[in-house]
Amino acid sequence: MRGIFPGKPRATPQALCTTQWNDKHLVIYVSGNALVILDHADHILQTIYQDEAQALDALAVDKHTGKIAVYGSGAVHIYKPYGADWGLPKWSLQFSISGEYVEHSYPVLAWGLSEELLVANTYLKLYQTWESEALIWNTELSSPAIATAFSTDGSLIATVARYDKLVKIWKRRSYGSGNLQFDYSYLRHPTAITSLQWKDQSTEETEIEHVLFTICGDGKVRIWASIDPHGLDYLQLWSEIDIASSIQPRNPTQEFDRFTVFIDGSLFRRAIDATGRFHGMSPIIEHLNDLSKAQSDICMVFDRSGHLCVWVFNIIKSQPPGRREVVNMIYTEDVEVFQGLKTGNRPPEFLSFIDAATGSQSMVIVSDDSINWFEGQLGKILDPTQKDQRFVHKALLTGHEKSIEKINRTAKGRAIISRTADGENIVWQQLDIKDGTALCRHSQITVKSPIIKSCLLRKGDYTATLHTGQITLWKSHLDKATPVVSNTFALDGEPLCLLHLPVSDNAKEQDYLATVSSTMQGIVWVFKRQADIVNGNCHDGAPVLEQFCIFNLGLQDNLSFLIPVDPAGSMPNVSGFLDAFAQDVALSCTNKGTLVTWAAQVDENNAKVQWFPIATIETSIMDPSLASGSSTRKVAVVDAERNGLSIWDTRSSQLEYGRTFAFGDTIQDLDWTSTPTNQSILAIGFPYKIMILAQIRYDYLDLKPAWAVIREIRTRDSTPHPIGDSTWLGSGSLVIGAGNQLFVYDKNITSSDENVKDLVISTKSEEPIDLFDVVALLNGPLPVYHPQFLSQCILAGKLQFVQRALIILHENLKFYTEGDTWDPTLSVDLDKFTCIEAPLSKSRDKSSLGEYLQEETETLTEDLALALNEALAKKSVPFLSNQEQFHLADLVECVATAEKHRRSMDENATRFFLFFRRYMLRKNQHKTAEGMGVTWRETMWAFHSDSQEILTDLVSRHYQGKLQWKHARESSLFMWMNDMSSLKTQFEIIARNEYTKSEDRNPIDCSLYYLALKKKSVLQGLWKMATWHREQAATLRMLGNNFDEPRWKTAALKNAYALMGKRRFEYAAAFFLLAGNVKDAVNICASQMQDIQLAIAVARVHDGDDSPILYELLEEKVLPLAAFEGDRWMASWAFWKLGRRDMAVRSLITPVYTLLDSPGRPSQEAKSYLTTDPALVVLYRQLREKTLQGLIGASQVSPRAEWEFVIQIARLYDRMGCDILALDLVRNWEFLKLPTPKQGKPRPTDIKDPRQLLRRRSSLLVVDMPSPKSPSVTKTHYFNPPPPKIFEEPSANSLLDSFGF
After folding, report:
1. 942/911 Cα distance (integer angstroms)
2. Can you give the three-state secondary structure of 938-999, one letter per residue?
3. Given this model, what pLDDT does residue 836 score?
4. What is the pTM assigned to this prediction?
């Protein structure tokens, strides 16, 4: 935590106290209705809020027991500490004492011995507080007491009334719980008494029992001591110190105020001993040591100008009055305790405590609205020759009195404003200090009418506040802000926001503010300083706030809210054009979940503001309760229940993250910031915690979330009050307002944090790491040997590069030791990477990847892979986490295995086999992956491979020739096999293995498979051998019938329905096949069994690929499922099987639900970024060059859509950390060469020879122009193709500029 602002201290004399208890130095004060307990300058031990809203006024702490008495709401509340034995004390209410007090007055409190509490007002009441309140003494006073104190032994009580010249000393005559008796006497003073304090004698044995220090209006300290215990008075005047004349300022007009601090002799001695031990003995320390041995007391006198005068005295009973010396020890100037203090109506109050273990002195100074905490070494403070700084400012304790409701910030986060419900507004500024940043109080704005919205201008020096029908501009660079100008306005509806509009560079001296009402009407004001001409010179004049224009956004009536977009650490820039590249200014949201981001441009010449919708996102979130947008084009939305969060990218209108939090975790706030390289960070506010999410790299292989929790801040340890609001500073610190307190958390986190240790590279050091550095590490470019980068290279057809990179990695690891310099790029040559790869060679003596790219290299053999994995098991590879290193070892094994079979497989078969092998390795390592199977992406590689025979053999051999249906589903075998003869052969193998998989050899297990193969006779033979089965006889009788006859079809159907009632779905599907009802059998597999692959396999095996049932299944089940889930791979496969190869190509670059006439409402997953896999562009390029239908389908895609798709894939590569692949894509992409029509728009009929569309013709283009196989596809138009547009191919430079290279 960087800093805390526990709240504004009460302006009452007893609102603050300090004590040492249980080896802790406690500073306790009241702020509003809160009791704040600190044990360090930057650590709150506990905050206790009173249930009543009335403020607390006075407190006292018992240094023996740690009990705290605090007065508020007409009662004295006693808090008792618990858990002190474990080092984490917490106070809880023990009981409350009610009483009658003078109106507009409050009691003063003091603790004695044995947990006795004195309450003084117009009376003195002494309570015993062991278990409950017990009044043991009571007496009336003539005037309300303003100060009271117990002597160290509890036998004397000193009281004084307001403006009184007499200190009343009460002496206890009896002890016990009953019939206490006190005598009293008076100590006379010439003027009114301002303070009194007993000398602490609990740690030393002296011949004088009681010593009292008093100060009165004549500027003198009087020392009273019990020199003669048998005298008429209990205390006698021992000596005086003239503190008024002890400091003579050079400027006589300086204020007279003097402030005193007393240090007891015993504490002084222990502190000087500690100073000598820690800092060595010097002449001044030796001198102080001599004074401390004599048990000398210290009186330190300060004034507002920084003067310090130190007096030393030693109270001894035997000293005659003439020898009672008070010696002046030091007089110095420029003491730091008043530097930067804002003095007001209330005179500062000094409290001090000394750490005897270290010799340091802490000075706590209470002024009008703050507490300043200073620390210094006692030896350095009392050194008259000291030239260095004596005191160091440790903390400023200030803040609000009431609970904080809202915190706003400037665009750059250099200033914030915190607001309470009662009209108290404080402007804070961020300061850059040596070890980071700090927050300081800048100005206070007090308003009478409630503030609806506020906006900080010009680094917080000006503030605009929006009220009902009025806007006010404040000059907030002073301690107390003053209103400069106010304008009234009239709008239909309630104002929704106050926007700070971006301006061009030549209008930086002007600020434009806009508000929009619930009826979409808006007003724009301009704030500027009029220039005054004085003697021919131009000077800044009075600020002016005037209406600039009115406007109407014209949005629909179901608008939920319109809010400003969070600048996320960067100032809005004006591009000069109002287009998709303009800066987001506002975000609107409807009750149906439609998000629109808006840009605005000020037209000064025509006195108007132009609005432009940048992006529109259909989130399908009904009645969103909260939303927040970022200038980095991210939007977070919270659902109506306030526990569901989704994060969207407005550039692609895609969902990046979705999570539903546990019941009770109510989301109440969203705040954005970003790193200097524009990686987004989101703070999610809950009632008692802040969860910080950061964007991380996309992962299309392991399907990991694109956002991760990197920090969690819980506030319950510091305050029981729920969080009101939070915001980010420009430095990356997070400011949290809870109750009347502000907590500033810096951006340092530890690598051992549970949230980040699995995300970042593990380090042995426990030193904190920068939040921005962590986020940059999770988003930057990947090293070329990273498993994700290598996997994407394999998909992009760069297997040769992958092998070279792994070989170079092996060579470099041989001689690597921890701490050596390491190049994460392995000296890769980007120009070589984006060119066609050279053939492999046998050279092994190269030391960099760049040299290998210039010549041929050897392949990654299994022996080399084994050696590399042994090195990976022994050494930590730089820039890889432990988990990533495990994944790299898996990839090495997969590449080596695929290389062994590479000469017998084409490129697509290699892709499938490599990732199938990778899946099986992961499955063996993590049992949770079992049953998931390869994705439709891997299925499509095998489906479009010409090496399916060898793939089938490799998959079968992987399962030791015992291929069962669960294995076929894992490998998607029957989705990608095209040869019907091989398909049926493998299906029969599965039927046989399903029968033999158990020792019982149950024919039921294989019934569906043999009946799909139409081999009822084989099934009959198996049943004849199942003599143990109780259903054998009935089943054999059933199978012996002719199911071409209607009666036996009916009997089979009855059995099928009966089995469905018993939820034996697979066996029921077999009986439907027996009855010849293939459609119902397929539907059971797809619906009841939730196995779409089994349904497709049964349809293909039973009736072939031309089966109307298969077409119907694809149209009614597969395509709607693909549209619902957004699976473009599945949709492309289904279209290809339907004979619509043109649509198979189009579905790769177009969301599936946009291609179907009635696709239904897509799921949230259909809008996820995962639906746009970068490997889609690889298959798209393949298919459009593979067949004539595919080429025509690609020609039906508008060139603009294709260009945007390529740019989007390049952005995805960049977000994945694969920047080199993004560069390779935009550098080598080939657009279709569409003909330019003579009139109108181009039509498909204008293309006479589609092969001319490709600049580099493919000699293997297959002519496949027959009409679609499915009659329903021919008859029903499922698709609404966009009209083609004339488009010229962008230049390579255009592509690179759009991507950011």
Report:
1. 8
2. HHHHHHCCCCHHHHHHHHHHHCCCCCCHHHHHHHCHHHHCCCHHHHHHHHHHHHHHHHHCCC
3. 52
4. 0.86
